[in-house]
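Support case: user asked for a sample of complex input and structure output to validate their parser. Sending the pair below.
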Amino acid sequence: MRVRAISPTAMAGVLRLTSRRDLELAPTSPFHFDATMHKPDHFPSPDNAWAPGVRWQTMRWRGEPLGLRVADGGTRAHPRVLVRVWSRGRLPGEFMEGLAGELAWRWNLELDLRGFNARFASDPQIGPVLRRWRGMRPASWSSLYEYLVIAIVLQNAVVHRSIQMMRALLERYGTLLRYGGRELYGFWDPADLDGVAEEELRALKVGYRARSIVRVTEAFARGGLDEIALRGRPEAEQREALLGLYGIGPASAGYILSDVFHRLGPLTHIPPWEQRIYSMLFLGRDPGRPVPADRLLRILNRRFGEHATLAVHYAWEDLFWRWRRGKAAWLDPLIRR
DNA sequence: CATCAGGGCCCTG
DNA sequence: CAGGGCCCTGAT
């Protein structure tokens, strides 16, 4: 049995982040703060919290646990994102500069939406969606490693179960961070989990996903994968690297390619659950008798071309915002809680 | 009580 | 390349 080193603060159960610095980020215009900073289709997780105009998010950057409060500080046309960063000790200016660049990447703040906006402004389906959500971007708040873990707990599970598994993992291996009057869990570092036995993970009721988590953790802890280097590689190579990980297949790779690596071009894979919803959303078909996935793929890629993943993201998120407001009841039976 | 499928993926034949 | 099996859970 492996013994983990536990610091006095961690033993108390909470790590207090008392040092504080501010950052201001300038996204490309237009920018939609809430639609970028909150995705109503994502399952809730105790590493973040959202209310209109503000997202609380823990983060690990260069091994340092951080607490973020991200606030809308501008308008759609003249956007500003205000980030308050809590940490254990004072962060050097060089760290803050690196962090600003990392956040701009993760939240897709440099995305150029002009071509997309122009092309779909008068599209019968995407046009109205654009008027509501112009400036929204697919984004990630996690590192690649963290997103892989999230993707693994999503697999073959109903929403409630994914929530339970993520919570159990964060409570066992993460760190409870106290900052700005809040308590949220921060992710563990791959090295913290490396060497943990599969059985220990199974005790958290993650089931057969335990092996995937162990193998993915090994890949990162032992330097087999470098997220920053991978960002600069071609899409095909990124996909290949993801599919090469044990437990990562086309569905998980698809989420990561769009959210983490910002690949927003043609669709390459449609998982069964999305197939049912797309059949209704884009073709008005009964979700109980969905259009075959390969045919759906061709139809959507023909309709949305080089912006297919982005266009589908807009329609999808719009649907879930409407659903949350009780405006898309047909989705109810398709979301297994 | 038993059975089943779920926001996949791996492995086998 | 199709299909069985997998952890676990809540629905039936």
